[in-house]
Amino acid sequence: MFWIQLKLQNFLSNKYAKSRIEKISTEVRDISFLKSFLSIFWKMLVLLVFGVIIIFPFYFMVVIAFAPNDQANGRVNEVLLWPESWEWNNFLLALNDGYWSALWWTTLTTFVSVIVKLFFSTTFGYAFSIKKWKYKKASWLFFLSILILPEIALFIGQYRAIILLEWERNTLLLAVSLIMPFAASVFSGFMFRNAFEAIPDRIKEASMIDGCTGINFFFKVALPMVTPTIWTVGILTAFAAWNSLLWPLLLLGKDSPVTLINIYLLDVGHNPDIESPIKVLKNVKLAGSILAIIPMFIAYFSFRKRILNAISRQGSTIKG
Questions:
Q1: Residue 153 sits in a domain of what CATH number?
Q2: Exposure on the CB side of residue 68, measured as CA atoms within 13 A
Q3: Other C-beta atoms lying within 10 Å of the C-beta of residue 9
Q4: How many domains does the chain divide into?
Q5: Same domain, 121 and 239
Q6: Among the four residues 61, 72, 78, 141, which has the most C-beta atoms within 10 Å?
Q7: How far apart are CA 66 and CA 86, in angstroms?
Q8: Which residue segment(s) compose the domain that 154 sits in?
Q9: What is the pLDDT of residues 187-243, one digit of tens each?
């Protein structure tokens, strides 16, 4: 009796599977050539529109950067689609207008910002990933409440502290002041807290049995297991520090010994001829813009695999 029941169930399951396969095949065959063409055409159209929106501003920037002065600055209502001649001298003028100093200070502040942010964020997140210590919940609620504060409110407090300490009068302390907004972040600490908490308890227990506790566990076990989070926080911090504008505008004046790449972009391209009605040379300014984004392009293509791996593996602390 059991054998007959088993045969019947096998027959019904095979028949159901066969009917499902036939139904799926029929649906696939019913798709006409016109529908397939329209689907592909629509996708290509969307990609083309977005491609034009993204690529054309860069194309115009390159064309104007290489255009001669009379074409770039003398013809106000003309849309430049191709330069009359390729003027490499525009880039030389932009380079000699303070580019190297701005590049040096921006690279230095960005590098130090990443290191300092990673140090404070990892230690902050690891401290709150420890299960039990006094006033942990109250402290965590206090730090989370900082996230609702507007960025400008924090800037005002930091700026006031720098003015009271007179850090703006010293070159080294002024450079340190530029790093302050990126030195610590509750959001980055929150990311590290989740990453550390995702480490399985069995790994912690095994390391304790092997005598790896305290600071040894943090450096030798915990940090290597949250490498994706480290790369993600480092990348986001680098982009934020490199592209910062509001904070440097508050601190740096025209006679400041420290300048950053975004402040350089505001000043580059000013016409040295005071009597000329053209105050800003657009071709030189856009040449400076191209020079400003080249380092980030180089950094991206040099570390693109690391960047993509960090993004794709974010939230996973266990390898393999």
A1: 1.10.3720.10
A2: 5
A3: 10
A4: 2
A5: yes
A6: 72
A7: 5
A8: 97-267
A9: 888 889 888 888 887 887 787 777 777 788 888 888 888 888 888 888 888 888 888
Q: How far apart are CA 300 and CA 293, in angstroms?
A: 11
What percent helix, strand, coil does the chain show, rounded to 5?
A: 75, 0, 25
141 within some domain: yes
Unique residue bearing structure tokens 């965590």: 140
Q: At what angle do helices 227-242 and 99-129 cross, to 10 degrees?
A: 140
Number of H helices, E strands in the chain: 17, 0
With respect to residue 58, please indicate whether it lies within any of the assigned structural domains.
Answer: no
CA–CA dist 100, 319 (Å, integer)? 41
Q: What is the pTM of this model?
A: 0.75
Type of residue found at 136: K
Long-range contacts for 313-316 (Cβ within 8 Å, ≥24 apart)? 313/228, 314/228, 314/229, 314/232, 315/194, 315/195, 315/198, 315/228, 316/198, 316/228
Q: At what angle do helices 282-302 and 33-66 cross, to 10 degrees?
A: 120
Within a 10 A sphere around the Cβ of 114, how many other Cβ atoms? Answer: 20
Question: Would you state the structure tokens that stand for residue 112, as one six-digit string?
Answer: 């130090």
Give residue 13's identity as a one-letter amino acid code: S
